[in-house]
From TrEMBL:
GO terms for biological process: mitochondrial translation. It comes from Coemansia asiatica. Residues 129-167 are annotated as: Disordered. This is Large ribosomal subunit protein uL29m. Residues 129-140 have a biased composition (Basic and acidic residues). One of its GO terms (cellular component) is mitochondrial large ribosomal subunit. GO terms for molecular function: structural constituent of ribosome. Belongs to the universal ribosomal protein uL29 family. The keyword Transcription regulation does not apply. Pfam families: MRP-L47. SUPFAM superfamilies: Ribosomal protein L29 (L29p). Signal peptide: none annotated. It is found in: Mitochondrion.
Length: 167
């Protein structure tokens, strides 16, 4: 029984899962850019994502982008803390522009996801409203058909008038 348990745990090993998925966990190195505590030179970075670009992305892409940017913010926070720890003046090393880009992109991702959520809620309410209208119309038709059925049965039950006898 112990051997079976050991075999199962070896199959579920996170290291094995990481090897199969292509993910390599580097531990604390992931909090530093290019494995350095502080970069040697200032790299040029791109711009923040525009909301119009983010609207075209799928849910999965937005989620991946969120975590990439979150990781970038963590790297920048680690660098800032390292500068503080080493007493490096902020004028010599500052990543404020990159932090602002990250914050803007994250805010825009939240905005796009909120827009999608509101659109989904609106469509759900609209579908529910249409369903209620459809049910009301069906109940009106059923009531009208019952009413006409009772009216026809009542006319058939009334005695026919006897022919008039000439006097």
């Amino acid at each position: 029984m112990v051997n079976v348990f050991g075999a199962v745990t070896r199959q579920l090993s996170t290291r094995r899962l990481a090897q199969n998925s292509g993910f390599v966990s580097r531990g604390l190195e992931e909090f530093f850019e290019k494995g350095q505590r502080l970069p040697e030179k200032k790299d040029s970075t791109g711009r923040s994502w525009a909301a119009s670009e983010l609207r075209q992305k799928s849910w999965e892409d937005l989620q991946k982008l969120w975590y990439v940017i979150l990781k970038e913010r963590n790297v920048l926070a680690s660098q800032k803390e390292e500068c503080r720890r080493l007493s490096i003046p902020s004028q010599f090393f500052s990543n404020k522009a990159r932090v602002v880009k990250c914050k803007k992109t994250m805010a825009r991702i939240k905005t796009v996801l909120n827009e999608r959520q509101l659109a989904w809620k609106k469509s759900q309410e609209e579908a529910l409203k249409q369903e209620k209208e459809k049910n009301k119309e069906q109940s009106r038709k059923i009531a009208a058909s019952k009413l006409s059925a009772t009216a026809t049965t009542e006319t058939s039950k009334t005695p026919a008038s006897e022919p008039a006898v000439p006097a």
